[in-house]
């Protein structure tokens, strides 16, 4: 039989394969091994999306990313010695050499990731606290996994912040950082400013389901942070995973019962989050959306007219496209419409007096990250549009009296603000010279606009018998439409002098066109580990910070002007009518690092802050931190009655000041992967001028402008103790307690004319000490359906479990027959909810 040419070729191929296989057959089966790597942060929270490289001889042989549990597994590896390198943006790159992998048993490794300044590979840190870590550490930080286990069960970023030492929520619901209001702090999401361009307020923050991490800085001595004088809230959002996941939270509404009978819907707050790959290994989607219908009961008012109603949608969408390992594109869209009926409802402002508030908040960003060799270029485009409307329940004039207010809310405003921002950040290759230098250079161009109109109706001030004491009339206001262009440059250097000492040096230069000023902000920080073990780190720094000047300040000249008439006991006019002209003045304060323009409105609010901190680890389980911080602010915008060129005026100037001091001790005890306890004590003092512009130029302005005074700020809390954590119990149960004990907030005493009596907000006029013990008891159940497994979490929540009397309000007018009586409280209450994890 003849064999053709094709058959001969086939025979030769088979013979060659057999010859190649003979050595392997002679050696027996090849040894294959398994390597498992787990990544977590310093709070023992799993970190997803970490790239793990396996190297042999310096060459990468395999790369994978950790899953939602921070885990990755390499299987069918050839036995041998490997180098493992783990890397993720925002963390130091870690590596371990000469890891022997054999078939005898799987090898398991755990890496503890350390946050870093630069977004690029840097020095190798073996997962412990060393001075090569940045000198700036957050005062509080929460990872995505931890947010679901907090006792207060936050639904958005703002609700997580009061768990940070030095951050509280005041009686009017506003977040206060370092004793100051939201307008003096920055809120950045993925490096973009998302505050209201007109007021500087936070507004509705993104859902926690879309958050990867939240960090709060009270003294970040890094030039990349700006537009604040109090603190920074930095949020990183969540990328979609390699597999589809769906979580459903609070799917069922809560009903109200009275006397054992159903009395309607109390609230409905369903949240859903889903994420996964739209195109495998290329395009990822992450979506978190919440609908909230909440009827808040004001305990100081009688039934049935004691509810305010809030309805909102909070949606955050993120798309990530991976062009290559060195080039990614991220797009986000935050949509948050909201309406509140009977906003700021209280005993002194019942339903007819309280306003209706409506807002629509849209924020979009596009972030391009490109690695050019060993350099990184990050380009961000961000656009924000914010519209708000405030109006009363009717057209009656508002009446202020010692016992409470009547009529309808006094003002109406409609405005639309927008911000367009372009940010460039360049991170060059690490420079080796007298140590190592990690540089970052950045620039931003920002355009902001604010247009709208503010109108006002007459406000009467009466005594308890209804006699007219003072009438505040208003002239007609006009349209306002200020705009601004801001240009910023910054550079910073993380200089690792040697393995136990590092310095952060930086400078930020800003020019805000609307003020005409040029501002320079130098900053320096250090980190020193005095002992070779690296378990003790001393940090410190000093820096200059400048606040944004919100555009509402430059719309003040178009607001209605007050016409004030004062009456005697017989009803006769004893003073006035006096018209107070709205005047935007010049700052008399001069700071040497500011080149002031010679024009009205040349405001440059600034603060000089320094801090020192001792960070110490005791074994594997306990970490303690003690720090002292002092901040002095000047050039703040304040509004007060004054004489300008011999005429009555409401003068808006830039000569306000404040100071803040804080001593903090925080201990974190971690005894297992999912068990921890955080204890903190804060001793602080916040004082300053009370008539900041936000009291009159915010969403809910006050009709009475009192003479300015320097005193305790509204969020001043000399002492505050906070404890929270998570404990595992048998039967897959977990217990999350939250305990807070602090001084009461200060308040101002007024008279029948609504003017201050004595020193407002003094230590003698405070609410009783506040104490609350909240808890959350959770149990997870696995449910199988059509060969798929789901987890259902049932939670039992308790609030103010000890039923402590925490006063909600006080009769603060000396003409009120009940003057000095504290009243209103939230008694202990419980609820049950559940979540579903697909």
Mean pLDDT: 87
The CATH H-level superfamily of the largest domain is: TonB-dependent receptor, beta-barrel domain
Question: What class, by secondary structure content?
Answer: mainly beta
Number of domains: 2
Q: Gyration radius, to the nearest Å? A: 30 Å
Task: State the major sheet.
Answer: 22 strands, antiparallel, barrel
Number-wise, the strands total 49
Question: Ends: how far apart?
Answer: 65 Å
What does this structure look like?
The chain has 838 residues and is mainly beta. 4% of the residues lie in helices and 55% in strands. The protein contains 3 helices and 49 strands. A hairpin with a 7-residue loop joins strand 33 and strand 34. The longest helix has 23 residues, at 5-27. The model is unreliable at 1-31 and 117-132 (pLDDT under 50).
């Amino acid at each position: 039989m003849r064999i053709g040419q094709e058959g001969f070729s086939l025979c030769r191929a088979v013979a060659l394969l057999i010859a190649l296989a003979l050595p392997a057959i002679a050696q027996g089966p090849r040894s294959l091994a398994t390597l498992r790597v787990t990544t977590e942060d310093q709070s023992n929270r799993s970190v997803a999306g970490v790239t793990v490289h396996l190297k042999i001889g310096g060459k990468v042989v395999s790369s994978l990313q950790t899953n939602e549990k921070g885990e990755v597994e390499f299987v069918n590896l050839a036995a041998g010695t490997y180098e493992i390198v783990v890397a993720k943006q925002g963390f130091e790159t870690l590596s371990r050499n000469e890891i022997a992998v054999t078939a005898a048993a799987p090898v398991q490794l755990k890496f503890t990731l350390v946050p870093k300044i630069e977004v690029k590979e840097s020095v190798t840190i073996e997962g412990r606290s060393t001075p090569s870590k940045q000198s700036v550490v957050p005062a509080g930080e929460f990872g995505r996994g931890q947010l679901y286990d907090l006792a207060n069960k936050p639904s958005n970023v703002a609700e997580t912040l009061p768990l940070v030492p030095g951050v509280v929520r005041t009686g009017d619901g506003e977040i206060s950082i370092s004793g100051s209001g939201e307008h003096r702090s920055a809120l950045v999401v993925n490096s973009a400013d998302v505050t209201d361009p007109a007021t500087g307020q936070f507004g509705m923050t993104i859902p926690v389901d879309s958050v990867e991490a939240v960090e709060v800085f009270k003294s970040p001595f890094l030039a990349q942070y700006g537009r604040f004088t109090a603190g920074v809230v930095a949020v990183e959002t969540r990328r979609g995973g390699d597999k589809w996941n769906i979580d459903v939270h609070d799917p069922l509404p809560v009903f109200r019962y009275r006397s054992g009978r159903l009395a309607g819907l109390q609230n409905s707050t369903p949240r859903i989050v889903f994420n996964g790959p739209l195109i495998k290994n290329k395009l990822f989607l992450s979506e978190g959306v919440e609908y909230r219908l909440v009827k808040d009961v004001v305990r100081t008012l009688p039934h049935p007219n004691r509810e305010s109603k809030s309805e909102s949608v909070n949606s955050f969408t993120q798309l990530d496209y991976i062009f290559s390992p060195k080039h990614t594109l991220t797009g986000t869209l935050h949509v948050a419409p909201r309406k509140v009926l009977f906003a700021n409802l209280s005993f002194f402002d019942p339903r007819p007096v309280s306003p209706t508030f409506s807002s629509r908040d849209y924020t979009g960003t596009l972030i391009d990250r490109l690695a050019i060799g060993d350099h990184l270029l990050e380009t961000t485009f961000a656009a924000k549009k914010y519209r708000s409307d405030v109006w009363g329940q009717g057209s009656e004039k508002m009446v202020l009296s010692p016992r409470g207010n009547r009529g309808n809310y006094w003002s109406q405003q409609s405005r639309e603000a927008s911000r367009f921002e372009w940010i460039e950040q360049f991170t060059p290759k690490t420079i080796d010279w007298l140590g190592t230098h990690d540089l970052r250079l950045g620039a931003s161009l920002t355009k902001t606009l604010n247009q709208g109109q503010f109108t006002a109706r007459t406000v009467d001030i009466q005594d308890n018998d209804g006699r007219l004491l003072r009438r505040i009339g208003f002239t007609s206001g006009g349209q306002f439409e200020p705009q601004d262009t801001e240009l910023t440059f910054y550079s910073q250097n993380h200089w690792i002098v040697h393995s136990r000492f590092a310095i952060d040096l930086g400078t930020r230069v800003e020019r805000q066109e609307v003020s005409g000023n040029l501002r320079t902000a130098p900053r320096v920080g250090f980190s020193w580990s005095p002992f070779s073990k690296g378990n003790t780190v001393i940090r410190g720094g000093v820096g200059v910070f400048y606040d944004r000047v919100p555009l509402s300040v430059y719309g003040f000249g178009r607001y209605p002007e007050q016409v004030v008439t004062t009456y005697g006991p017989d009803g006769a006019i004893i003073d006035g009518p006096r018209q107070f002209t709205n005047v935007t003045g010049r700052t008399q304060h001069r700071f040497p690092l500011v080149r002031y323009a010679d024009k009205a409105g040349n405001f440059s609010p600034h603060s000089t802050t320094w801090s020192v901190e001792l960070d110490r680890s005791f074994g594997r389980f306990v970490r303690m931190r003690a720090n002292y911080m002092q901040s002095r602010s000047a050039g703040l915008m304040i509004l007060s009655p004054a004489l300008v060129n011999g005429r009555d005026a409401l003068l808006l100037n830039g000569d306000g000041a404040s100071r803040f001091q804080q001593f903090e001790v925080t201990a974190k005890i971690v005894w297992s992967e999912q068990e921890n306890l955080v204890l903190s004590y804060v001793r602080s003092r916040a004082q300053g001028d009370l008539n900041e512009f936000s009291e009159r130029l915010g969403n809910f302005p006050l009709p009475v402008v009192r003479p300015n005074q320097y005193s305790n700020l509204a969020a001043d809390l000399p002492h505050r103790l906070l404890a929270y954590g998570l404990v595992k119990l048998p039967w897959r149960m977990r217990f999350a307690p939250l305990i807070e004990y602090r001084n009461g907030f200060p308040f101002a005493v007024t008279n029948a004319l609504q003017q201050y009596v004595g020193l407002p907000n003094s230590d003698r006029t405070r609410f009783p000490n506040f104490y609350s013990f909240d808890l959350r008891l959770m149990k997870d159940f696995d449910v199988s359906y059509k060969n798929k497994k789901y987890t259902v979490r049932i939670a039992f929540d308790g609030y103010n479990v000890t039923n402590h009397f925490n006063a909600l309000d006080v009769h603060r007018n000396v003409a009120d027959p009940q003057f000095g009586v504290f009243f209103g409280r939230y008694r202990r209450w419980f609820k049950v909810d559940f979540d579903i994890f697909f």
